[in-house]
Structure formats: C-alpha cells, structure tokens
Amino acid sequence: MTTTATIRGTTISYQDEGSGPLVIRAHGLTHSRRTDDEIGLIEWRRLVEAGFRVVSYDARGHGLSEGAAESDDYVWASLADDLLALVDHLSPDEPVRAVGISMGTATILTALTIAPHRFAAVALGAPPTAWETRAGQAAVYEELARAAEVKTADELAALLARMPGPPIFDGVQGWPGASAAQHALLPAILRGAGRSDLPDPDALAALDVPALILAWDTDPSHPVSTARRLADLLPGAEMHLSEEAADVATWPRRAADHFRAAGALIG
Description:
- Helices cover 39% and strands 18% of the residues.
- The chain is of the alpha/beta class.
- The chain has one domain (2-261): 3-Layer(aba) Sandwich (Rossmann fold).
- An eight-stranded mixed sheet has the order 1-2-4-3-5-6-7-8, with helices on both faces.
- α3 (76-90) crosses α4.
- The two termini are 26 Å apart.
C-alpha cells in the first residue's frame, strides 16, 4: 500500500507492506524506493517474506516526496529529523528496526545519535565516505550541482552514465539506475549531501543498538574503510563485506537474520 504523511511540513510518500515487526527502509542519494526495486540488485521485499512489516519511504526531494530548493533540508541531520518524525508517525510507542543504503545509512546513523531509544536494531548498507575521506566526495557533489544548474535532466543523465562505476558492479544490468531526485531540487540536494558527514566517532561509540554493517568492495564513494571504522566504533557491531555483486543480493537475508538475533522477531 502506497500512502503519504505530512512530516515536518512536507508530504512524504511511502509504501507499507507485510505484517510483523516494523522495518523502515531508507534509500540512497538521488534514488528512491522505486529505483532501488527496479535495479533489483537488493530485493528488500524478502524482508516481508521473512515476516516483517516493511515501510520504504522516499526522502524529501526524491521520488514521490515533496521538497524545497533549500540545501539545509538535505543535510543528514535534517534527513534524520525526517526519519525520526516518520518513526513517531508509524510507531509512536515501540522502537523500530531500520535498514539503509548510503545516504539512508547516514540518515539512520545520525538519527541513532539523536534518539537511540527509537531503534531496536539497524542494518547499515554501503556506508558512505566520512571523516577523512569526506572532503573529496563533497567536491564531486559540488561539481555535479553546478552541472545540474545548467544541464537538462537528460543531459545530466548522459553525463552520469559516462562516469565510471565501481568495478564490483561491472555487467550488472540497470546499475546505477536513473536519478529519482527532482531535477529542479538536485543542486540543493547535492549541496546538502556535500555539507554532511557522519556523526562524531565518540557519539557513535556511545551507542548501544545492535548494528549490522554491510559493505561492498571497490567503491571509493562507499569505501570499505568507513565500514571498518564503524565496525570498530559501534559496540558489538558485526560487518559483512561483499566482494562481488552476487553476494550483495544476500543482504536482505543477512538483515533479517540480524533483526531476529537482536530480538526483533518474537516467536
């Protein structure tokens, strides 16, 4: 079922499937719940088959969700406030599980440092560049933001298609997928991402929420170094590294197993 909610003054679109313990799924930068499903590399619907209720939402400015051309709206702290407001809307009395990819992972981590009691367990896919490696990625986003200001959506898509992707996904049909960010908002979205970084390591080390870190290899935008640092920082965290695309397809099963092991699924 697809529906909407007013989250912090903005209409956020989400899909609600299945029954059981609630998992909120957060997509990556310029993607949406639909584009992730169309690529088909990670079949998150398997979480529904595993006995979970899964809510997949479009971040503001992405997919079917509304947004404004204000970069402040797309920094990870703001997106984390959106996520927490959505958690309060969907599950006001019980903590939830959350699974993310890239920007979605950053959103979840930031939300964890604000309100850790709202989460029972998390699965953090493709952690993005952070800390020492973040400045270089921010420069890439600024370059793309300037291109988006002068190019049409089709011209920008052609530019992005010519950029080399991670070797792990060579030959994967549909990767990386078309942008689902609203083109008029793209400069603000990219600049918000460029101004963002993961929370302070000391704040992450103080968390006590069961975490599974899911990394893929050969991607400088999502370096294994970030995943390993998170695995060291988050108490009791487990990490899995996928060295080929076929293994990335195991992530929904791994997330479901993690949520069960963390006590998220009763019976």
